[in-house]
Specification:
Length: 158
């Protein structure tokens, strides 16, 4: 069996920190006309022309959703409202980051994070992961309590 003690410069396996970044808005564009693929491109083209950077792009059955800096919420409304299907812009979102080395190699870790977020009562707008972190877009009012729950339950922090 291989030695898994690691070296001094390696971070320990499992969750190492939880971070919150606030000041975002959740955007949903639904009921786009057919062909959906072309309509999605049109929406993204308008957002780009408006100079708004997006994160967490997800395609939905009838449209798309993404996150923008909250300071661009009104710009998104005025840019997309006349050109799109049903538009919803929800300010007051935060991103909770759970940092963990080789997260995807830690069997069940993402499931634990999601289960604890649901148990904590957080409404998750978006969920994503990378090799070293999970990212949850939640209502800003839920972010601090969710972060505290994750720190306590996953890292033993009080």
């Amino acid at each position: 069996m291989a030695d898994q003690s690691g070296t001094e410069f390696e971070k320990r396996r499992g969750p190492s920190s939880v971070e919150i970044r606030s000041g975002f808005a959740q955007v949903h564009v639904q009921d786009l006309p057919e062909p959906i693929a072309s309509s999605r491109v049109d929406v993204l083209r308008e957002v780009a022309k408006a100079g708004v950077s997006i994160d967490f792009l997800k395609f939905t059955q009838g449209g798309l959703s993404f996150v923008v800096p909250e300071s661009f919420a009104s710009k998104i409304r005025s840019t997309l409202d006349p050109k799109s299907g049903a538009l919803s812009v929800q300010p007051g979102r935060s991103i909770v980051y759970v940092h963990a080395v080789n997260m995807r190699d830690e069997e069940g870790l993402n499931a634990q994070i999601i289960a604890r977020a649901i148990t904590a009562g957080a409404r998750i707008d978006h969920l994503s992961d990378m090799h070293d972190r999970a990212l949850l877009v939640v209502n800003a009012d839920d972010a601090e309590s969710l972060a505290a729950t994750l720190r306590r339950d996953l890292m033993g922090a009080s």
